[in-house]
Amino acid sequence: MIMRWFKENVWAAVAITLIRIYVGWKWVDAGWHKLTGGFDAGGFLKGAVGKPVADHATQEVLFPNYTYFLNHFALPNVKLINFLIPVGEFLIGVGLIVGGLTLTAAFFGMMLNFLFLFAGTVSTNPWLLLLGVIIFTAGTNAGRFGLDVYLLPILRKAWTKLTQRNGKTITG
Fold this sequence. Notes:
Blueprint: H1 2-8, H2 10-36, H3 42-50, H4 64-74, H5 78-98, H6 102-118, H7 125-137, H8 148-163, E1 164-165, E2 168-169
C-alpha cells in the first residue's frame, strides 16, 4: 500500500521531484567542476589500487575484483575515464533536474556512487546513493513533473514499433 502511494501519488511525486532536483544539482555541480577544472582520475585510480578497501583486522582486500578492474582496465584507459566521469556526472545531473530519462539517470548515478565507494571514497556518496535509491524506487512517478511525461510515451511507441513485425511481437 505504501509503495503504491509512493509510485502513484501526486504529492509523493512532488516530494520526489524536490529530491530529484537536489540530487541532480549535486551531480551537475560535480561534473561541471571536473569538466572545467582539468580533471585527471589517474591519481585517484592509483591511490585506489595502491591502498584498496581492506578489512581492518585482517588487511584482506574486500573488493579484489574491483581493484583488478581498476588496475587492468581503468588505469590503462585513464583518458577514457577522464572523459566518462565528468560527462557522466554532468548528464546524470541534467537528466535528474529536467526529469528526462529519470530512472536511467538515477540508475547510473547509483552505479557511480557504488564505484566510488568500492574505491574507498565516502564523501557524499552514501547520501547520494540513498537519495538515488529513493528516486529509482519511485519509478515513473519520479519523472511525473519533468520531460518524462512527454518522452516516455514516445519511447514506448518507438520500442513497440521496433519489437513488432507484421503484427507479431519479437521475443527474446
